[in-house]
Design a protein that fits this description.
117 residues, mainly alpha, 1 helix, rod-shaped
């Protein structure tokens, strides 16, 4: 095997550049990892906030459903009073509560919809 001075110099250059590159690249790798961990923590926080909001909506919906079920049960248990006049025509009689018809009254969130004319 022949000795090549060019390949020997390239080997020395590579041996001197590797420690230099590792001193430069290590802080960059640490900073990139720290930034990635920060983004992961932010993503976890955002997901946790959204899940909490969703859990609040589900709990509110369950409470509303239980309330409507309780109203329907209470109305089914009530007996008609003898003092109340009965309607002669079925079309004239209107239920006192919307839950008695099987449809619950929708509540709005304060926003009024406008109809396009």
């Amino acid at each position: 095997m022949r000795f090549s001075p060019l390949s020997f110099l390239m080997g020395l250059a590579a041996a001197s550049l590797v420690p230099l590159l590792s001193r430069v690249m290590r802080p960059l790798a640490v900073e990139a990892t720290a930034a990635g961990l920060g983004m992961v923590d932010d993503a976890r926080r955002i997901v946790a906030e959204r899940m909490e909001g969703l859990e609040d909506i589900v709990a509110e919906a369950r409470a509303r459903r239980e309330h409507l079920d309780a109203e329907a049960t209470a109305e089914a248990v009530e007996e008609p009073s003898d003092l109340e006049p009965e309607a002669e025509d079925a079309h004239e009689a209107e239920p006192e509560h919307p839950a008695a018809t099987g449809r619950a009254r929708r509540r709005s969130n304060g926003v009024v919809r406008r109809r396009a004319s």
